[in-house]
Write a structure and sequence with these properties.
By secondary structure, the protein is an all-beta fold. 0% of the residues lie in helices and 49% in strands. Strands 2, 4, 5, 6, 9, 10 and 11 form a seven-stranded mixed beta sheet that branches. A hairpin with a 4-residue loop joins strand 7 and strand 8. It is globular and about 40 Å long.
Length: 123
């Protein structure tokens, strides 16, 4: 297991912004992808965004144009800038790490997961 430290969750108003951070322990430059998923009660965890080692960016359709993922490989850290938040964005957000380029980035088949951080957006 790789410990993941997440931060940045909280309460925001609709139209507002939040910035999530996640830092993974382990050798630097070693993880192919880091991403974000979210989950609400009674629903499956869903893909939000991912960043590859080559700085490729991938987003769920529901957040395209509003969320931006970035990665600092020297710090093993991934960020999720969430703008123009909607009440539908309310969920527990999970950081995830994929070690090698042999998985589907949009699936839940990542190697390591954080504990999650709550994001609540009021209308």
């Amino acid at each position: 297991q790789v410990p993941l430290v997440e931060s940045g969750g909280g309460l925001a108003q609709a139209g507002g912004s939040l910035r999530l951070s996640c830092t993974a322990s382990g050798p630097i430059f070693s993880y192919w992808a880091m991403g974000w998923f979210r989950q609400t009660p009674g629903k499956e965890r869903e893909f939000v965004a991912a960043a590859t080692y080559g700085d490729g960016q991938y987003y769920a359709d529901s957040v395209k144009g509003r969320f931006t993922i970035s990665r600092d490989k020297t710090k093993n850290t991934v960020y999720l800038e969430m703008n123009r938040l909607k009440p539908e964005d309310t969920a527990v957000y999970y950081c995830a790490v994929m070690r090698h380029a042999d998985k589907d980035l949009m699936s839940r088949d990542y190697d390591y997961w954080g504990q999650g951080t709550q994001v609540t957006v009021s209308s």
